[in-house]
């Protein structure tokens, strides 16, 4: 799933390529992806892209005051084309194309989604806050207003494991499953550590890990073509998705805890005092 660094890179990419161009055509191939009907998507024709912003994991194209807000979900992606094919694409079947935007110079982008579980969401609204997911977002961890005091206030009194807290978009916007693993590895903290147990020193350590991890990922993505961002994310990860490999810091074997629809990865030596975390799902399978 694209997270804050990748969506920030896509926003930067589109500012350079799309801003200043008018919308020539919008084709909706997957009706289920379009979550709004007023204003109609056809109203974008002839309007110009005036800005591109990011809200957590949401991408926001300002089109003469209307906002095309995109959430790529787990398997969605934005694919830029220097030249959009003139031949119309037929909806249905196994075609992963959900929506196509063509600009006045013939360039544009496709929104695609792989797999059978569809989560890609596109909204056309007058205000980004009209999108429920945007309206409920917590603070952005890269905003100047997000400080160690902000983080301390978020953690205070919460009887929640830190891994889940970092992933909760209503608490902190933009961090998902992958970068929460990376942040906690940098901070040398167990993903099961309870938020309310954090000392002042713990808060500072976690805050620094959030900032360095996200800013490093954003910097690595800077200037890349949209199609190269997925590969950059994968190669830049140290523990997430690397079960069974060696930790790049200490050399211990990276381990995994599985859940119903996701998993987390961590280094026992770096994060849990050398003790493997209980994987309840695997324990049940072994009984």
Automatic annotation (TrEMBL):
SMART domains: Fapy_DNA_glyco, H2TH
Domain Formamidopyrimidine-DNA glycosylase catalytic intervals: 2-93
One BP term from GO: base-excision repair
Recorded GO MF terms: 8-oxo-7,8-dihydroguanine DNA N-glycosylase activity; damaged DNA binding; DNA-(apurinic or apyrimidinic site) endonuclease activity; lyase activity; zinc ion binding
Entry annotated with the keyword Transferase: no
Cofactor(s) the record lists: Zn(2+)
Keyword terms, alphabetized: DNA damage, DNA repair, DNA-binding, Glycosidase, Hydrolase, Lyase, Metal-binding, Multifunctional enzyme, Zinc, Zinc-finger
Pfam family, one: Fapy_DNA_glyco
Keyword Flavoprotein: no
Transmembrane segments: none
Family: Belongs to the FPG family.
Protein name, as recorded: Fpg/Nei family DNA glycosylase
Organism classification: Bacteria, Bacillati, Actinomycetota, Actinomycetes, Streptosporangiales
